[in-house]
Amino acid sequence: MDSEWLAKVFRLEKLIDSGHGQRREDQNLGLGHVYYGLVRAYRPEVIVVIGSWRGFVPIVMAKAQQDNVEGGRLIFIDPSMADDFWKDPKVVEHHFANFGLANIIEHHCMTTQEFVKTDAYKALDKIGMLFVDGMHTAEQAEFDHASFPQLEGPALFHDSCSTIMSRIYGKPYQHTVRKYIQKLQDNSDFDVLNVPLGMGVAVVTLRGT
Ligand SMILES: C[S@@+](CC[C@H](N)C(=O)[O-])C[C@H]1O[C@@H](n2cnc3c(N)ncnc32)[C@H](O)[C@@H]1O
Q1: Fewest Cβ atoms closer than 10 Å to its Cβ: which of 65, 77, 91, 182?
Q2: pLDDT (tens digit per residue) in 150-166
Q3: Is 176 close to ligand 1, i.e. is its CB under 6 Å away?
Q4: pTM (2 d.p.)
């Protein structure tokens, strides 16, 4: 990542304020370095990202795909429930084009529940990486995970350490993703690396893969 591209990321206040432990002073992406590094290392050609406030995760992951010779395609699912930001396709395209990523990121303005009923979902073959950051409840995190049995690489779960009461959808509710992470840790089919920085991210792989 060159410093000019990074400067664009840090220019957008709301892109940085999203629980990934970034720091403006030294253009430090915080957990973004983990996301970027994992995409460079695994080289997934297809990534699915569920939920983002202003696109920090899809932008960092798509940038890593662009920097890999394989290139790639990133399917971003977000119904714009926190505000109207993702509602206008032209605004969304312009937002990702600003980072040179409009030809990689494909936005679907809907919930995971709706996405799994689409032809775009049926056409999905292998998925190399999944990032879950939608409703932040254990139940929805499990649904999001189970919805992509085509996944061959790691599943990442944001808010893996968070216990906060959130008000982003109006009525306060508690983050409970950590309970789903505990369930995966107790299941010998999975390896789980929990990184307790920012709101936390858990990297989950099928044991032996
Ligand atoms: C506001 S973000 C959380 C902040 C996040 N940590 C970030 O990096 O930006 C959560 C997003 O998940 C989306 N969302 C909520 N429920 C969802 C669901 N069932 N399927 C897909 N996306 C969902 C919301 O529209 C919202 O934009």
Answers
A1: 91
A2: 999 999 999 999 899 99
A3: no
A4: 0.97
